[in-house]
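Case study 2.
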Amino acid sequence: MAYDEQLAERVRDLLQARSAVTEKKMFGGVAWMINGNMAVGVSRRGGIFVRVEPEEAAELLEELHVGEFGPKDSPMKGFVLVDPGILDDEHTLALWVDRGADRASSMPPK
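Prediction:
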């Protein structure tokens, strides 16, 4: 399954004003890094994966539209997968993209 290219374009547009952003094909989708730290990406499974504060992840996973990101037996810590159904709204998409970008920006450059 290919990733949603329209969703990727919307994410790209939201990140264009930020500095030190790079784009890379990853996990069968596309991801954006800030200073070398993965911030957000469009998943081939649908939706976006978002870097979050590790201590926020458990609380976010209680929301209906948020799931674990990565292999079922070892999901990636500090990331969540946001269902595509709630991302049609530009404001909601921007909130999630900003959350991931802010978290990646707060980390030491790689």
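The mean pLDDT is 95.
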